[in-house]
């Protein structure tokens, strides 16, 4: 998953200043869940709309995305990995919206070269991009593909000029699937593996979308508001 600050908000901030807490900003942005809408799909860089979240295939990406948007079926979920094959853009709030979330194809054994090329091209050229969210399954931990992706993303975190174009945030999904007496050890190992592969990656946010209510979703929303400088 990736998040962008929309052009509308960038222009609006030039003419007025509003001081609110990150928590309040997140509540305002995500409060009108019925207005969240699909904007466009991009199969190549030329079709990217003028307005990212990634994770290994079948890590619960679409389920988490729906929960963050406060919806159940805006994004199609599937037990079959590799359903997302394009960059899919979703507006948060009423038109024109204040930010855009982008669902990216999963990586791993079912990933395809052209998806990776699209994703990398997006990272290199998208000026509105504020933060990339990478997801890991709490039950499975990191494998070699996850480590490679973290290392790959790290190459984009510092530009040739020494600036940071966007930040990288880790998210651990399906925490409820880990036996309670093993959670601390499992999460601790994932944190160590993330830091070893990508020291600049922000510490993981713990989530579970199967719990009622879902766990960690408000933390994700606040994190997005902070990343997009909505507060």
UniProtKB/TrEMBL annotation:
Q: Which Gene3D superfamilies match?
A: P-loop containing nucleotide triphosphate hydrolases
What are this entry's molecular-function GO terms?
A: GTP binding; metal ion binding
The record's listing under SUPFAM superfamilies reads: P-loop containing nucleoside triphosphate hydrolases
Looking at the record, the residues that make up the EngB-type G domain are: 47-230
Q: Which domain of life is it from?
A: Eukaryota
Q: List UniProt keywords, sorted A-Z.
A: GTP-binding, Magnesium, Metal-binding, Nucleotide-binding
Q: Which GO terms describe its cellular component?
A: mitochondrion
PANTHER family hit by this protein = GTP-BINDING PROTEIN 8 (PTHR46498)
What is the official name of this protein in its record?
A: EngB-type G domain-containing protein
Species, as recorded? Candolleomyces eurysporus
């Amino acid at each position: 998953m990736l998040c962008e600050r929309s052009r509308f908000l960038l222009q609006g901030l030039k003419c007025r200043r509003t001081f609110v807490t990150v928590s309040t900003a997140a509540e305002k942005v995500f409060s009108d869940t019925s207005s969240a809408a699909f904007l466009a799909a991009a199969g190549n860089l030329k079709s990217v709309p003028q307005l990212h979240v990634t994770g290994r295939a079948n890590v619960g990406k679409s389920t988490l995305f729906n929960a963050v948007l406060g919806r159940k079926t805006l994004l199609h979920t599937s037990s079959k990995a590799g359903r997302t094959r394009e960059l899919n853009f979703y507006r948060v709030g009423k038109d024109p919206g204040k930010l855009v979330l982008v669902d990216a194809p999963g990586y791993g054994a079912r990933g395809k070269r052209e998806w990776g090329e699209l994703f990398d091209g997006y990272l290199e050229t998208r000026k509105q991009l504020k933060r990339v969210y990478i997801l890991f399954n709490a039950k499975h931990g990191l494998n070699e593909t996850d480590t490679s992706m973290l290392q790959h993303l790290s190459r984009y975190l510092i530009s040739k000029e020494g600036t940071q174009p966007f930040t990288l945030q880790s998210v651990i999904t399906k925490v409820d699937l880990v036996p309670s007496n093993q959670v601390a050890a499992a999460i601790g190992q994932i944190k160590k593996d993330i830091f070893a592969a990508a020291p600049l990656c922000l510490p993981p946010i713990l989530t579970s979308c199967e719990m009622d209510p879902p766990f960690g979703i408000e933390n994700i929303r606040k994190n997005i508001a902070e990343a997009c400088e909505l507060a």
